[in-house]
């Protein structure tokens, strides 16, 4: 019998709320036999920075906030990036030890799942990069999916952000992932037709399950409400 991957499509929620959900689900792995989970969300406009970022100037943070976006400092890998409506953000909370995965092989697994997803929609030229600072999924010189993960005692958090029909102009105000001269793109831009998060999410879950050799199972409404009560 294949192991389960529980998934929760939580819709549009604030970054800080999603982070609280991740922390709660990760803590369950440390205290009990917990199931692997993938949390699927969209965020209102928010810029986030990871642990590779040097101290980020307060005036830059304030400049970004004046654009109408939130701003968060995080414990994920990577540099500054943007999340917003039209972008599928997936946070897998999984036990790497049970899956017999190291962090690097786990990141490669995420990249493969994203490439499967893009190819499903007809974007066949997706690629990864061998450059250590170019983690993620690319189409030519443009990044379509950013990846930044965290692992503590084998339990993962944070994850990936795949541009579906994201408003890409938000990226003009930063150097995404610290990569000068690189572009960002989306499924909608590449295909010339609107591709929504709602269309992409189930495809990504299936691709993730294929890579992990597991079966997907949705969170029940009761399970969702229990978690939301705990993080209040």
From TrEMBL:
Residues 32-216 form the BPL/LPL catalytic domain. One of its GO terms (cellular component) is mitochondrion. It comes from the Eukaryota. CDD domains: LipB (cd16444). It catalyses: octanoyl-[ACP] + L-lysyl-[protein] = N(6)-octanoyl-L-lysyl-[protein] + holo-[ACP] + H(+). The keyword Iron does not apply. Pathway: Protein modification; protein lipoylation via endogenous pathway; protein N(6)-(lipoyl)lysine from octanoyl-[acyl-carrier-protein]: step 1/2. It is an enzyme of class 2 (transferase). InterPro entries: aa-tRNA-synth_II/BPL/LPL, BPL_LPL_catalytic, Octanoyltransferase, Octanoyltransferase_CS. GO terms for molecular function: lipoyl(octanoyl) transferase activity. GO terms for biological process: protein lipoylation. Catalyzes the transfer of endogenously produced octanoic acid from octanoyl-acyl-carrier-protein onto the lipoyl domains of lipoate-dependent enzymes. Lipoyl-ACP can also act as a substrate although octanoyl-ACP is likely to be the physiological substrate. This is Octanoyl-[acyl-carrier-protein]:protein N-octanoyltransferase LIPT2, mitochondrial.
